[in-house]
Amino acid sequence: MTDEVRLRDVAEAAGVSIATASRALTGRNRVSASTTAHVTAVARRLGYQVNSVGRALREGSTRTVGMTVPVIGNPYFAQLVDAVEGALVEPGLELLIADSHGDVDHEARRLRTLVGRQIDGLVVVPADVERSAPALRAARRHAPVVQLDRRVEGLTTDFVGVDNALGMRVVVDHLVDRGARSVVLVGADDVTSAGVERREGFEAAVARTGLEVHAPLLDDFSLEAGQRAAEELVARGPLPDAVVAADDLLAVGVVTTLRRLGVDVPGRVLVTGFDGTVIAGITEPALTTVVQPFAALAQEVTRTLLARIADGSAPTRQSRISPELLVRASTTRP
């Protein structure tokens, strides 16, 4: 045996044919679970590595999926990436991640790099609701594209995301139940579809109630934007009974700054978040937040992408998944 372990070596050691060993190691059918487990164990013991280039040439597939997100440091996107990577395990696909840093030029370069790797498909969280369109159109010429969480106006692709309008409706109804009579939205500008949809969802929800609505504070989805919003709220006064933040980072910024400025949360002001990230549970007080179903989103975007890879001419799919409200201390007065 040479220093490089070949498929033939694995087959001989496992006592199976080369064809059986190949099917077992590449996840193809017609191989029993016990045989697959046995061959895989032998391959691992021998240190065999699948020749991905050769397999790609044979199958016309690299078994890789590319994914771009605006800010990987945002806990929401980190959890989303983790969920998508987990969902791709069962179909035997690997995930390549690229961070666009919320910049359309960066995004275009990242997409060109990914399609240059001969990926089988792309999952894209667009950086901009309008300006991301040219880069996504160019990428779509080389690989199937599914937009996730955010979408580009006027671009016809498959899309998977949460029902933002429903999320805002359950938040507003909860605050009314908690006795709030006035409310303000701390949200994002019109750069992303999520920012637009949550603002519009908030406006539609409060229109159904008798809530007094303060002028919104719109910036971006960041901790710093939440801090600036809280300082502005205190400066302009009087304070509303409740603050609806369009994501958890904004909400944490609002809560920590209000408390630093001597405003009791939730005693004086109720605060809610959106996304259900890990930081929502560790801030003080813990955030009431709209929880995005990460696993369900990941499973749906995987199914949608695989269907698009299998049939590029099928009608596009638009999937909206319902979120749930998790009530915690930030809206629970003593």
TrEMBL record:
Ranges where the HTH lacI-type domain occurs: 5-59
PROSITE patterns membership: HTH_LACI_1, HTH_LACI_2
CDD domains, alphabetized: HTH_LacI (cd01392), PBP1_LacI_sugar_binding-like (cd06267)
UniProt xrefs under InterPro entries: HTH_LacI, LacI/GalR-like_sensor, Lambda_DNA-bd_dom_sf, Peripla_BP_I
Domain of life according to the entry: Bacteria
Gene3D superfamilies the UniProt entry points to: 3.40.50.2300, lambda repressor-like DNA-binding domains (1.10.260.40)
Keywords from the UniProt entry: DNA-binding, Transcription, Transcription regulation
Record protein name field: LacI family transcriptional regulator
Lineage: Bacteria, Bacillati, Actinomycetota, Actinomycetes, Micrococcales
